[in-house]
Model the fold of this input.
Amino acid sequence: MAAEQKELGNAEFKAGNYEKAITFFTKSIELGGDHVLYSNRSACHGGMGNWSEALKDAESCIEKAPTWPKGFGRKGAALHGQGQFDKAIAAYEDGLKIDPALAMLTNGLADAKKAMEQEESGGMGQLGNVFSAPDVLQKIAANPQTAPLLMDPSFMQKIEELKRDPNSISKHLGDQRILSVMGMLMGVNLQTTDGMTSDGGPAEPPAAKKAAPPKAPVVPLTPEEEARKAKKVEADVHKDAGNAAYKAKSFDEAIANYEKAIAVLPDEITYYNNMAAVRFEQKDYEKCIETCKKGVEVGREVKADFKIVAKSYARIGNAYIKQGKFDEGIRAFEDSLMEDRTAGVEKDLKAAQKAKKVQADNAYLSPELAEQARAEGNELFKA
Done:
């Protein structure tokens, strides 16, 4: 019963239905669920901006499993959300003492340190700090009024700039889209006071049907944004050529084109992911892993979409599994799910865990049976 409630909660969490997910996770806890449920419920509270509740669940998770590093990641995220950056840093560092390589801890620590530096610098950056929270894109996506903005490339460029440099908020305050999102993140209305009279009372209803609001003006790109846009157009020509070669199974040609794309725009994670896919098809798993890790590195630098980073980790996991390195593969799948929970990666993780168990159960019998167990594990993973 507890497991069933947990799965229902995971499904609602993936759909962004945090309140429903909390209900299921709470029922699972009441039925005797483990520490992971407190971690999951903490993530739900964080998704809704309820950082005090997120912190309570994170601390409960740590109390029940003090050697499980992800509990410290939840605690760090909650403290970051409360603006307690020094305590967030301490929480992430405590987790890293247990697992120095866990991505959610290393990335969270970097974000918390950056936020603290920006807060100490003062100025307009204090307003812009709302854009540096770890879950800012999830919050924008979860709000029906702001979610459509994520499809606008010019808006996304501004968000990425604000995530990198909150002090740049001063030059974007004239953009109603930015004001709308900032107000949503802060829980206030930073735009107009439509609907209120001068004395603070509700306005009279309009006598006639309102005209459709004018479309938001196109905000001109900065010189830097224009330069990057031009480079991406050039690089995408090589990427498209690489995709065509990949489909035709001309793998060497595909790699050559992806390398050209990277040479033009070296901070675009998609090109690394595409090249890693070719390496995987060539069964050059070491090169595949190396390329994915480089993609994650450059993606972190430019705050790439978490879903794209998740794909990199998932491919790393698959490459490790092909090599029979189940521990490394399992960790990569877990890192992928921390970025973006998808049914496919969850299935891959379960298959890898099952294959590892088959290998462990049979390895002690003999070297020959150990090799057979490894092969059986790989077959289970493919199934």
Observations:
- The radius of gyration is 24 Å.
